[in-house]
Amino acid sequence: MATSKGELVLVTGAAGRTGRACIAALLRQGTPIRALVRRPEAAADLQKLGVAETLLGDLTDADLWDEATRGVTRVLHICPPMHPQETDLAKGLIDASKRTGVKQFVLYSVLHPSIDVPHHRRKLVAEEYLINSGLPYTILQPGRYMAHLLPIWRAVLETGVHAMPFSVTSKFSLVHLDDLGAAAALVLQGDAHHFATYQLAGPQALSMTQCAATIADVLGRDIRADHIPLDVFLERARAAGANEQRLNVMKVMNLHYDHHGLVGNPNVLRWLLGRDLKTYKDYVEDLADQSAARPN
Fold this sequence. Notes:
By secondary structure, the protein is of the alpha/beta class. Helices cover 45% and strands 16% of the residues. It has a domain at 9-145 and 175-201 and 265-277: NAD(P)-binding Rossmann-like Domain (Rossmann fold, 3-Layer(aba) Sandwich), CATH 3.40.50.720.
């Protein structure tokens, strides 16, 4: 298989947790990166990690798309979560990639983009546009992250309650960001993954009750799962600064999760990586170790 080592890869959404996980994996395989970021401090941070180039700008600036893609061989496009212009941003970047001679466009999409949830549907339209673009492409469809535990981790420790705005029995194929980053880096090597769409689900379909039991097992104390009423959750998000468009997406998404969860099959991700996938217990153990090592 041809290698992409030495070929510059553009990563959009580079400063987010997904972007950072992908960048870490790309750097481990020696791939030079151009990172698109909005904030100078994020650029400086990524440069310290070993990113070859940083480009400051907003992805919504159409004048930036050609500059961002010019001189790169491959693009890994990670749109900011629930972005209302996601479809237009993907289309613009795909068109720019065609103009500037990009050899592969990797779209970071979502597990089950066809479900009736706004940001899933926007990703589905972006997938269709990419497939019809004529560009060699790879589409990645990741499941719900194990890392969604991180923002509530301190609350879980303090209250003994793992609370989310959907049923405690809904199941999710939770996936580790390290595995997703490794998969993204892998498909950006050579042409073996051109014209492929990969479902990237975690190794177990877990309910919040099962997640709480895993946390309890790791911590050695009682942890229970609870359901936050959706209106309470949305009011908290509004107080934290979420706009009405984002609140509506969160409402539809969590109603879907409440009824259906988000379950996929882990075989593709396991096949891609050629190893066992990281489990939810692995993630919680690492999080607990980090908390223990952190000074009070």
